[in-house]
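User: tokens in, sequence out, please.
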């Protein structure tokens, strides 16, 4: 696991984080996040009590928590960390007024996602809003959406011809894509 560590600030308080290159996910120090959201003088004790109050959280704790080596005041130590999804589950169990706006935001995100599942066009609109927010131009956004549609058409064509779509590190140039489309079932796409 290749890791990159960083300290994030939330309401001017430190939250230790670790980036994992393999899973491409951020891990957050649970004790730091709980400390920020509860203002507890002893977040470790708060976590123990929270797990007693929420038996389902306690039962799933092993799947939520990943001990990672993190820099502490006493040097590098293993600290319980969680991914964004794990942190969301933990935050659900925090009955603190400071956690309430976060819980309301999570509920809104979930409601929006359910709406998008009912009307997929909302997902496309949200993608356009997100790309705009990230600073991409209208031209770039349109090209991106077109490339997604072209890729979908290409993989659909492969399926019709009995070929499997390659994922991961294999990249297909437009020229090779055209050659692959012209393959007949049983021909080897490595020969193009």
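Assistant: Sequence out:
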């Amino acid at each position: 696991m290749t890791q990159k560590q960083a300290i994030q600030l939330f309401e001017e308080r430190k939250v230790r984080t670790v980036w994992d290159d393999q899973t491409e996910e951020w891990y957050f120090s649970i004790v730091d996040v709980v400390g920020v959201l509860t203002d507890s003088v002893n977040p470790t004790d708060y976590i123990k009590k929270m797990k007693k109050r929420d038996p389902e959280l306690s039962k799933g704790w092993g799947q939520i928590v990943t001990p990672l080596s993190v820099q502490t005041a006493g040097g590098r130590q293993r600290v319980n960390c969680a991914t964004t999804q794990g942190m969301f589950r933990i935050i659900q169990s925090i009955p603190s007024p400071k956690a309430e706006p976060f819980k309301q935001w999570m509920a809104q995100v979930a409601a929006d996602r359910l709406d998008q599942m009912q009307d997929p066009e909302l997902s496309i609109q949200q993608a356009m809003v997100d790309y705009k927010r990230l600073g991409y131009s209208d031209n770039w956004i349109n090209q991106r959406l077109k490339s997604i549609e072209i890729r979908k058409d290409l993989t659909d064509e492969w399926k019709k011809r009995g070929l499997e779509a390659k994922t991961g590190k294999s990249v297909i140039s437009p020229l090779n894509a055209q050659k692959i489309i012209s393959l007949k079932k049983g021909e080897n796409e490595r020969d193009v």
